[in-house]
Amino acid sequence: MRRRGHHTAPVFAALGDDTRWSILVRLGWEPASASELARELPVSRQAIVKHLEVLRTVGLVRTRRSGRSIVHEVEGARLDEVGRNLRGIAAAWDRRLEGIRSIAEERG
Amino acid sequence: MRRRGHHTAPVFAALGDDTRWSILVRLGWEPASASELARELPVSRQAIVKHLEVLRTVGLVRTRRSGRSIVHEVEGARLDEVGRNLRGIAAAWDRRLEGIRSIAEERG
DNA sequence: CGCATGTGCAACGCTGGAGTTGCACAAGGG
DNA sequence: CCCTTGTGCAACTCCAGCGTTGCACATGCG
C-alpha cells in the first residue's frame, strides 16, 4: 500500500506536518513571501518553498507577484471548502456510528 | 522542526495513512482481530498490529478479548468526538477566514 | 547601471515510518 | 493433551519526505 495514491484526502497529509501548519497559520495572519517566512520560521527558505508548493497543490495557498517578490496568501475559498469537507466527513462518521450502534443494539 | 510534537492534531497523522484509513473503514463495518485483518488486507499482520497501536493511541480503536483472539473495534464515542473536533476546526477556520476577508476588504 | 535582495534549481544527508521476516510464546478447541 | 491458531517481540530493509547547502539566475530599487 505504501502511501501512493492518498485517495482519502491529500489535505490530511498537508495538515499533518507541523511546519506546514505554522506556515498556514502565519499566512492566515498576513500574506508573505518565501524569504520573509524563512526569516521568521526556524527553517530554510527552500524548505519553506517546498511546503508552499505542497500547500499550493492542495489548494490551500495562492500565489501572487508583488514587486520583485512572490507573495503567498491563504486561499480563503479553498479553506472554507476544506472546512465543509471536514464537516461532511464528520457527518458521515456520525451516520456510520449510528449504524454501528444500531447493529450493536440489535445484537445485544 | 522535523515532526516531533505534532501539537496540532495527532489524529491528522493517523488519518493521513491509507492503510490506517482502510483498517478504520474495515473495523467500522465489523470488529476484527489482527490476523483477520491481515488476511483481508494486502499487508502483513505485524503491519496491521502497528497501525492498530497507532489508532488505539489516538483513541480511535478499542481492544477486547474474545476467545483466543483479540478483537479490535471502532471506538464510537471517540469517533464522534473527533468528528466534533473537526467541525470545531472548520468553524475556527471560518471565523479566521471571515477576519481575513474583513482585513482584505478594508484594505481595498 | 550596479548592487542588494529574491527566486530557481540540483544534489545531497538524514531520520522516521511502513512493511517484512523469523521465531518464540500463549492458549483455546477437539 | 496436543496441535492449531493467534499473539508478542526483535531485527532488518526500504524509501518518501523534511531539511540543508551551494550556486546561478532574475529583477527591482536607488
From TrEMBL, chains A, B:
Coiled coil: none
CDD domains noted in UniProt: HTH_ARSR
SUPFAM superfamilies: Winged helix' DNA-binding domain
Domain HTH arsR-type: 1-94
UniProt GO molecular function: DNA-binding transcription factor activity
InterPro entries tied to this protein: ArsR-like_HTH, HTH_ArsR_DNA-bd_dom, WH-like_DNA-bd_sf, WH_DNA-bd_sf
NCBIfam families, sorted: HTH_metalloreg
PANTHER family on file: TRANSCRIPTIONAL REGULATORY PROTEIN (PTHR38600:SF1)
Protein name as it appears in the record: Metalloregulator ArsR/SmtB family transcription factor
Organism: Nocardiopsis eucommiae
